[in-house]
Amino acid sequence: MSALTLYPAIDIRGGRAVRLEQGRADAETVYDADPVAVALRFAEQGAAALHVVDLDAAFDGEPRNRHLIEDIVDATGVPVQASGGIRSMSDLDGAVGYGASRVVIGTMALEEPSFVAAAVARHGDKIAVGLDAEGSILRARGWTIESGDLFSALRQFTLMGVARFVFTDIGRDGMLAGPNVERLVEVAEATTARVTASGGVSSLDDLRALASAHPQVDAAIVGKALYAGRFTLPDALGAVNG
Asked: pTM value?
C-alpha cells in the first residue's frame, strides 16, 4: 500500500458548503454556512490539501464563489485544488490568481479539447482534467449531457501533456457505495498521468483499497463520508499513511 493524498471536498453553492447526491442540483444538503470554517476544521485535523468546487460556476457559469479560494488559502495555508465552471482562460487565470495550486478543467476539456493544450502550455502541472463517466461514457455540464468516450479522452489528453486526471464514477458519487476500483485501475493503465479518485468512498477499507489499487492512483477526494461521520479525517489519514 502506497501513501494516498486525501482531499477533503468543500462544495460551495450560494456561498455555503453543501453536498449533492450524484451531482444533482436538486439533491442538496447544506452542511455549513461558512466554507472557510469548514476548511479550517479540515486543516486543524491534518488535511494536507483541499478540493474546493464552485457549484454555481459549474451549473450556471457564474463564478460567484471563486474568491473564497483566496479566503481558504489565507486562513488555512493548505493547498487548494479548485474545480467547477472553468470555461475560459480568464476563469483559469482567476483561480490560479486566487491561490489555487491546481485547477481541474471538466466540461470545457470535453467540449473544446484545444483549451486543455493551451492551459497546459500556460500553467503546466497546475492543470488537471476531470473525467466524469457513467460506464465508459463521459458526461459534461453537470453530468446532464453525454460527451464522448472515457478512454479516447484519456489518450488524447495524455498526448497533450496532462499530468493528472480526476476520475469520477458518477454512479458512485455521493452515494457512499464504495469506489469503482476496477475502473480506476483501467483508467490508470490507459495513461502515464497520475489519477485522483473521486466518488463513492464510504469507509476506511475503501481508502485502503484505493491506496493499493495502482501506483498512479495516488490521491482521493473524500466528501460525504466525512460529512456523514462515517470516519474522521485523522482516522482516514492514519489508514492510508500509517
From this structure: 0.91
Report residues of the chain scoring pLDDT below 70: 1-2, 20-32, 142-143, 172-176, 242
> How far apart (Å, rounded) are the C-alpha atoms in residues 228 and 73?
25
Phi, psi values for residue 164, rounded to 5°: -150, 140
Please give the Cα distance from 193 to 213 (Å, whole number): 15
76 Cβ partners below 8 Å, 6+ apart? 39, 40, 42, 43, 47, 50
How far is Cα 17 from Cα 11, in angstroms, rounded to an integer?
Answer: 5
CATH assignment of the domain containing 113: 3.20.20.70
Residue pLDDT, tens place only, 204-228: 999 999 999 999 999 999 988 998 8
Give the single-character DSSP code of 101. S
Mean pLDDT value across the chain: 90
Catalytic center residues: 11, 132
Q: Domain containing 119: what range?
A: 5-241
Question: Count of CB atoms within 10 A of residue 1's CB?
Answer: 14
Whole-number Å distance between alpha carbons of 24 and 18? 12
Residue 56, all three cell numbers: 454555481
Domain count, the chain: 1
Q: Nearest to residue 168, comparing CAs of 58, 76, 70, 63?
A: 58
Say how far apart CA 128 and CA 116 lie, in whole Å: 9
